[in-house]
């Protein structure tokens, strides 16, 4: 998948969606709808998702298009980092996921950690904001702002669930296979050495 092409096609799609949202003229709306369909076809040419999946993912949102929000928890214990193993891919990442509407960022990450690990956490501070568009080598269908929070476990124990098959604490020199779209080694290295918030 060509990341530069994908970014350009996503931008065309965003402009078409903005035109559909703000446009008043019926003929202009028709043109924006056609432009949106063309953008989806172009995205399909450079990504490995079936056109039906793309149409479902890219046509269900109304309103002005903005980056999506991903929240992650950075939890350390004895100089090791808590990671969770995805049940389906068997790849590991910081616990977290998509931010849900109606919850604050800290409420979102508390909820995600509880769902994925069975543990309650205290959210201490925002450590970093990563922009997935900055990783040319890891193209993604959507642009995400990844908010990573420093958290500490206050209660609970791991409960196997639909999302997570295992959890573990790892040091940076002995990491398992990471889910690159969720968590990279470079991100973990930045987080391990933060005394103030990092942002792309």
Automatic annotation (TrEMBL):
Cofactor(s) this protein requires: Mg(2+)
Residues annotated as domain Nudix hydrolase: 64-192
Superkingdom of origin: Bacteria
Keywords tagged on the record: Hydrolase
GO terms for MF: hydrolase activity
Transmembrane segments: none
Pfam family, one: NUDIX
The UniProt record lists the keyword S-adenosyl-L-methionine: no
The protein, known as: DNA mismatch repair protein MutT
């Amino acid at each position: 998948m060509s990341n530069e092409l994908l970014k350009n096609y996503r931008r065309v799609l965003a402009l078409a969606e903005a035109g559909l949202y703000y446009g008043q003229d019926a003929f202009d709306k028709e043109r924006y709808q056609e432009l949106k369909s063309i953008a989806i076809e172009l995205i399909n040419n450079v990504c490995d998702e079936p056109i039906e999946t793309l149409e479902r993912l890219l046509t269900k949102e109304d309103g002005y298009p903005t980056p999506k929000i991903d929240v992650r928890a950075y939890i350390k214990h004895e100089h090791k980092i808590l990671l969770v193993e995805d049940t389906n891919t068997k790849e590991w990442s910081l616990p977290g996921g998509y931010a849900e509407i109606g919850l604050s960022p800290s409420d979102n990450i508390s909820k995600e950690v509880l769902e994925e690990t069975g543990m309650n956490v205290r959210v201490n501070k925002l450590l970093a904001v990563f922009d997935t568009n900055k990783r040319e080598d890891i193209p993604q269908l959507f642009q995400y702002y990844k908010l990573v929070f420093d958290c500490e476990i206050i209660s609970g124990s791991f409960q196997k669930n639909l999302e997570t098959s295992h959890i573990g604490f790892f040091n940076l020199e002995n990491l398992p296979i990471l889910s690159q779209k969720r968590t990279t080694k470079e991100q973990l290295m930045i987080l391990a050495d933060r005394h103030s918030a990092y942002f792309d």
